[in-house]
Amino acid sequence: MLIFSLALEEPEKMGLQERSETFLEVWGNALLRPQVAAFVRAQADRLARLVPEPHRLAEQLPWLSLSALKFRERDALEAVFRFWAGGEKGPEVFPMSRLWDSRLRHYLGSRYDARRGVSDWDLHMKLHDRGARVIHTREFRRWRDTGVAFELRDSSAYHVPNRTLASGRLLSHHGERVAARGYWGDIATGPFVAFGIEADDESLLRTSNGQPVKTASEITQHNVTELFREVAGWGRPTANHGTPEQVHGEGPGSPERAAPSPEFTVHFLPLGSAQTLHHKSCYEGRFQLLYVACGMVHLLSPDLGACVAPGGHLIVELARYLVDLRQEQLQGFSARVGELAQAAGFTPQNQDRPSETFARFYKSGDSACLRSHAAVQSTTPPPGALVPPSVQSATPPPDALVPPLECPPGSLGRPEETKVPGAFKVTPDAPLLTLQAPLAPSLPPASPGLSLSMADKRAARLPRRPRSDAGPPLTTVRTPRSRTQRKSPRFPPRGNCS
């Protein structure tokens, strides 16, 4: 809602360059300039006053519809806007710099002191190899350290926390579920891959001595500016349609007319509506395009596919630019997306050069008629039902994947007490099996406050007496003791030593 309000702002109030720069800072920076933060507070205060009043919302923002939301969801949306508007004052309410550093420490762990080297490795060995070579080392390292991706002004001007990046999560505190506000967004890939690695103007992708001439920030600013220029000129006639007199309305007898506003409506649906859309007949075969992000692939089901009209298209974002995934995991993710799309009634599109970033499908008429009727009449199946039969039959149950643990001779403990953490792992996206060999058995290290008894020490120090079936019995030879040898004193037993 905030982004649409910014994109549809009147040109008299905000110019094209200022609009694109404000969008980049709000969308990709963890810290804002005071001017941008003031704009966010003003827009959030306006939206907070309009959300509870549907009539005023329809008058001032005709492109926005919240009629499908429940009252508690509207109240939650109003509370979010109140927080953005500064209802809770003070930098300690949302300390973005400290939250970013804390999340980065948790993500890197012991590699935090070498975070500069880690960022260079992720950039050159992963993002550059996957096609994002225009991302410069300096801008990527700055984003990893501070969360500021687009530094359009002096670096000292960015010090106001970006409250639009805040999110809530239920955490466990002393055995109770407590709601906490923090930042749980992306800290690994960065916002450069969205608008900054491709461009229609080939001159922006030109290289010199093997290095890109433009950075990802400059390409992003160019693409966003062109996008906002297209939005600002929505519905206006261009020079390619008609004469200049007809375009500018300067012909004789032709009155001036204002540029028509964009004729579209953005409908916000309730949370979790992806599993319940097929229950309403008004959504059956209604949509022509379905876009699924890589983090929402699990929602792609036959029920959701029934809402797409015959001949409609499906675009699924692949996990190409997720730096934490290896190449075999990316291939498994792509295969899993194809299986879910075919189960939902879609057919892959024939492309000369298949894209590694998006998977494109279409819905044919025959498959739509068969699958949409079955999807509307049935309920949402469990996640296990979406796995194809070949995968279910080929993957044995977890009990069959764990080998029987045997306690080697001389080890302390029984077989049922021996635990091997991480002995196997089966990923849901691809039937991968990883076996880890257990470590060699050894005596457990002594923990503070734990002492071995005399019997345990004697058993650990002295060898065991061989059994009768292990071989011939040993012969004990006794030598006569000299008279000059002193006898060892004998002490009476003092009870059970164990």
Strand order of the largest sheet: 9-10-12-11
What is the N-to-C succession of helices and strands? HHEHHEHHHHEEEHEEHHEEHEHEEHHHH
Q: What does the radius of gyration come to?
A: 33 Å
Silhouette: globular
Overall mean pLDDT stands at 76
End-to-end distance, in Å? Answer: 73 Å
SS summary, helix count: 17
Q: Which structural category do the helix and sheet elements fall into?
A: alpha+beta
Low-confidence stretches: 237-260, 368-477
| Major β-sheet annotation | 4 strands, mixed
Strand content: 5-15%
Number-wise, the strands total 12
Helix content: 25-40%
Protein name: Dynein assembly factor 3 C-terminal domain-containing protein
Domain Dynein assembly factor 3 C-terminal: 64-349
Pfam families: DUF4471 (PF14740)
Region (Disordered): 235-261, 372-424, 438-498
